[in-house]
Amino acid sequence: MSMTRILFLVLGLLALGLFVRLWVGSGSYSDIQNLEQKIDQQNAANDEQAELKRKLQSDVVSLSKGDASVEEHARSELGMIRQGETFYQVILKSDPTPTPGLTPPVKDGPHVE
């Protein structure tokens, strides 16, 4: 064999090895696609968390501005009533389970002043 044939054979094997690594090794096309999918999933999760954070910040701002939002929150989320008010709970036939958190008031129970 001549020296040029040996050189071409070595270069061909080296090129083949590099192409195989490009197709199946670390940093290959499939590896990059998997990483891009993970990035897309993480971006979607980040967007959900950002929306939740925005809602919570909005709640904090509204709760810090006055008593009306605190009272509204206490009524809707905690089922609290004012002293002297009568609590009525309407259960529709289409909704057999009562709303959680809304229970009939207990004598001397929690009150929103």
Automatic annotation (TrEMBL):
Localization: Cell inner membrane
Primary location group: membrane
Membrane topology: Single-pass type II membrane protein
Signal peptide: none
Pfam family, one: DivIC
Coiled-coil annotated spans: 32-59
Side of membrane Cytoplasmic, spans: 1-6
Similarity remark: Belongs to the FtsB family.
Purpose: Essential cell division protein. May link together the upstream cell division proteins, which are predominantly cytoplasmic, with the downstream cell division proteins, which are predominantly periplasmic.
HAMAP family: FtsB (MF_00599)
This protein's name: Cell division protein FtsB
Native organism taxonomy: Bacteria, Pseudomonadati, Pseudomonadota, Gammaproteobacteria, Thiotrichales
